[in-house]
Queue: 3 jobs
Job 1
Amino acid sequence: MSRILIATAAVAAGLTLLTGCDLGSKPAPARTVTVTESATPGGSAPATTPPTAPTAPATAAPGKGPQKVYANAKAAADALLAAWHIGDKNAALLAGGPNTVEKVFASAVDTTTKIEGCNPGSQSGVSYAYDCYYRYEGGSTHFYVDPYPATGWRVVNYSQVAD
């Protein structure tokens, strides 16, 4: 019987770490960590099991702002898209690197768009872990997302494709 209780407690603790939710308690505030952008955007193999967000307490390094931890690829893409919608580059930098954010903000924005889905990169024919996209008349927009140890997930590239 004690093995069942220990296993149940371990599963509950794991779910709490993965989701940030603890059944029966108030939601915890978002954790923050410090991030530096990778020198090689993309190129990682698609993740078969998405990595989880860091479990260590987050702290900001001197001179660096806090970063939000994204639970999955879609959360990072949604955050960058939302920041683009309101023209907030600082908020966009929480979900993507400076080069990616510059590419995104150099494009025309349609503030009614929402991410429709995220496919593993291998299914989309790209070298990124996930291809998060939305479609519009005449084309589609893609946010390429890779696992990123400091924030869970990070948008590392962006493209718009005409049909």
Job 2
Amino acid sequence: MNKLIIIFFFLVKISIAQELTILKSLDDIRSIKEENAGKVLVFNFWATWCKPCVEEFPELIKIHQKFKSKDFKLIFISLDFKEDINTKLLPFLKNNNVDFKTYYLDVNNTDDIMNYFNVKWDGGIPATFIFDTSEKLQKFILGENNHDFFEKEIKKFL
């Protein structure tokens, strides 16, 4: 019986695959916002090749764990190279226990995306955008931050 339970939990753990959705246009990003209407949204643009992004990543995972039962949604958007999706991006997400849908940006023109989020954004990462429950951008954060900083900022809008 114990072996059966162990096998069951092992299979459940394996079957939890990381869901990675490719964003092809600004409309895809608008759809994410529409799907999560009424929630505080935190969009985080990052990449595995970006050291500050990698250092900040666990801090954001803690934020997700803390607020996921509230009207809150963390949206990771990877800017990794396409050829690194299977070898770097997906293993990184798995190693960091990301158990929710994340996104990969694959657009020809990033200017539309950058201008949509903030015309002052030059494309630097990590870049985090906090939208309130009425979908209004409340905070643009460029550069690495920690759990306490994010918690304080998010609580303002919950």
Job 3
Amino acid sequence: MSSPDPQFFLQHRDSVSRPAGWRHRRYWVVGRSLCAFRIFRFPSADRSGLRSFAALKAREWAPYAEVGFHAHLTGDAATIWAWDGARARDAMLSTAVRPARLAVVPETAMQRPGQDGTRLIACVEGFDGQVWSAGELSASRWWPHLPSRDQWRDFCRGGGISGLSNGGPPSAEPALWRTRPWTNSGEGFGIERRGREALAAGVALMLAGYGYVGGSFARDELALQQTTQRLRQVEQQAAPAIADRAQALANLQYLADFEKLNPYPSQLAVLAQVAEKLPSNGAQIIAWSYQEGELQFTVQSKPPPDILFYVKTYSDVPGFTQVTADRADAGGLRIKLRLGRS
């Protein structure tokens, strides 16, 4: 185990290490033991869109209700560390730290990058196996204890390393800490974003306060002190609203990006098209499956549904192709079709 730079807040699984001082930029470092790791590739995405795709995938993949994450963008890929955002926020509040004031990064991002090949790093908690290729981290796996020979062999094979000897893992290297992350995403993700937005809002409030009072207060030291105090109070009162607005905008952007990635109509739109064509003889949809443009649903009615009627009816619906139908259990009719890309 190594000791982190004393300028960091370091979040362990059960505790938080506080920095000794504030000489450098402030970071909240999430221990590798609390981070999930994955690399996503977007071969058809241009560089300008890669950042949005990384944010979308992180929220989609990470198994947390509130996702905190950090990404490193390389070519057509995004290396992502994700953690429980609510757990990180609660840990900050328990140490009397405002989340908006700190940049949140994973432990690995604050350690010196490795040379091409494999290495085993002694983290603050546990050990991190890493594979580096062409100067980039291409695989990572965390263990609470030193990995066994079989565990290390399986990890290396998964990372594309072949021709290994029958020996066990290498000796664990101590972590060498940096004062800034080596990743290239900056503080543009997760909790860090709200810090910049709060700062921008604070500057806007200050300018508004100065404009309201007028230029003459600059020569009046007492008036300046009073205005500054009022500004601080307004900023504290506005902080929850600013955070809520930032979260709402992030959610809206997430939904917009997700819709762009899906070339097919939504479930609700397709269901409306299908229901509109049901005959008025008591026909009901009793089963429904719609994924990746493939639609299958079962209709039941009295008298039993007519195959030719349903095939012709839904073949005439714009965007519905390859319509087929066959009998299902209990006198129902199973209809299958494919939707064209929008």
